[in-house]
Design goal:
Largest sheet: 4 strands, mixed
Radius of gyration: 16 Å
Helix content: 40-55%
Strand content: 15-25%
Number of helices: 4
C-alpha cells in the first residue's frame, strides 16, 4: 500500500526564505517594510505568537499566490556604493534561486522596490 502525501508550504515560510535571500545579496543594507508591510508583519507575528510559534523574520517581503503563480515583493534599502538597478536584479535572481532550492516552489515574479539609498553605508565602507 502506498500513501501519497501533499506538502503545502505556507506563504510566511516563503517570505522568510525570500527575506534571507534578499538580505544576503550584496548591495542590500536592510529590508524595509512600508506601511502595508508593517501591518502585515504585525498581524502575522501576532497570529504566530497566539499559536505559540516564534515568527520568522520576513519584514519587507510579501508573498502572493494567484492562479497558481507565485509573486514575491521585496522592499529594500540599498547601499549608495552600489548601482541600484544591478542590486535590484541581483535580489530578483537570488530570491528566485533560493526559494526554489529551499522550498521546491517556482517564483514567477520578484518585484523589488528600493525605498531608500543609504549613503552613510557607503561612507562607512570607505567608498
Amino acid at each position: 500500500m502506498t500513501v501519497e502525501a501533499e506538502y503545502v508550504i505556507a506563504d510566511p515560510v516563503v517570505a522568510s526564505v525570500a527575506a534571507r535571500a534578499a538580505l544576503t545579496t550584496p548591495g542590500v543594507v536592510r529590508l524595509e517594510p512600508g506601511l502595508v508591510g508593517l501591518v502585515t508583519a504585525w498581524t502575522r507575528a501576532a497570529r504566530q505568537r497566539w499559536k505559540g510559534l516564534d515568527p520568522a523574520p520576513a519584514d519587507g517581503v510579501r508573498v502572493r499566490t494567484a492562479d497558481g503563480r507565485l509573486t514575491v515583493q521585496v522592499d529594500v534599502v540599498t547601499s549608495g556604493a552600489d548601482q541600484v538597478a544591478a542590486t535590484g536584479r541581483a535580489v530578483q535572481r537570488s530570491v528566485k534561486r533560493v526559494v526554489a532550492e529551499q522550498t521546491g516552489l517556482v517564483v514567477d515574479e520578484v518585484l523589488v522596490s528600493v525605498l531608500d539609498i543609504e549613503t552613510a553605508y557607503a561612507e562607512a565602507e570607505g567608498r
